[in-house]
């Protein structure tokens, strides 16, 4: 499915006011994972700035032990500090990578901002080496802009 078609699906999920925020986040994860072949794990982490930790709120894919991540640790933790997208073409080449599964080859993390503050992120793992493009980044930034409207 093309990103433009997927935008329609994400918009429809966001507008489902009968669902809780967590249910909508999980549905968005599912839509992304089922529509984009190289999105093997999709999740949303949210920041607790008091404890300097990220907390997994919703995801679709293999279960993970990494439900709480300290700021600065791993790719997600680095994005919590840098406030910038982080595309990792080869996770094996990253010193600060937290391995979630031996099948993961690459990762993209895009921060989620509300009122100018980094409040979380969307995290996507891929079992495909180096699949993420600038188009993925722009699309995921758009997804986060939609998500912030339900938070």
UniProtKB/TrEMBL annotation:
Tree of life domain: Bacteria
InterPro entries from the UniProt entry: GAF, GAF-like_dom_sf
Pfam families documented for this protein: GAF_2
Domain (GAF): residue spans on this chain: 20-143
Protein name: GAF domain-containing protein
Organism: Dokdonia ponticola
């Amino acid at each position: 499915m093309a990103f433009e078609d997927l935008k329609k699906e994400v918009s429809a999920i966001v507008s489902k006011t009968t669902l809780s925020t967590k249910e909508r986040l999980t549905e968005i994860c599912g839509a992304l994972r089922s529509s984009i072949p190289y999105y093997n794990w999709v999740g949303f982490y949210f920041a607790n700035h008091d404890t300097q930790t990220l907390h997994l709120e919703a995801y679709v894919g293999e279960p993970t032990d990494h439900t709480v991540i300290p700021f600065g640790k791993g790719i997600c933790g680095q994005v919590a500090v840098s406030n910038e997208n982080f595309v990792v073409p080869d996770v094996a080449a990253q010193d600060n990578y937290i391995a979630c599964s031996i099948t993961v080859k690459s990762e993209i993390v895009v921060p989620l901002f509300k009122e100018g503050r980094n409040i979380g992120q969307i995290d996507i793992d891929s079992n495909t080496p180096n699949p993420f493009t600038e188009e993925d980044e722009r699309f995921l930034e758009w997804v986060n802009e939609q998500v912030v409207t339900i938070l």
